[in-house]
Amino acid sequence: MDYGTLVLLTEVFGLHYLLSATISFILGLITNYLLSISWVFNNRTMGNRWAEFAVFAIIGVIGLGLNALIMYVCTDKMGIHYMLSKIISTVLVFFWNFFARKLVLFKKNSNQSSL
Q: Which residue among 12, 83, 111, 112 has its CA within the 20 to 30 Å range from the CA of 74?
């Protein structure tokens, strides 16, 4: 979703690639949250879903900043095409988002068994 929206907004609608990347990242953030609580993580550290989403989003906003920085450096400074820059950024930001969320929001309670 993130990559497809980036290309659509940049190539079809003519938005600047960093604006397209921001919009696509936000849509991806919402999708990622819904998939994470449904299919990926079974253990949750917060009982309040709004607070959980707020923390999830804060981690995502940091990821968004990393995404923009990596894309800017790769595209404007290194001359890499923005679509390749997005792939590089996606890989790096994926690890940030996954491990930050796993450690903060979805860590296993020490009282739970590993099964």
A: 12
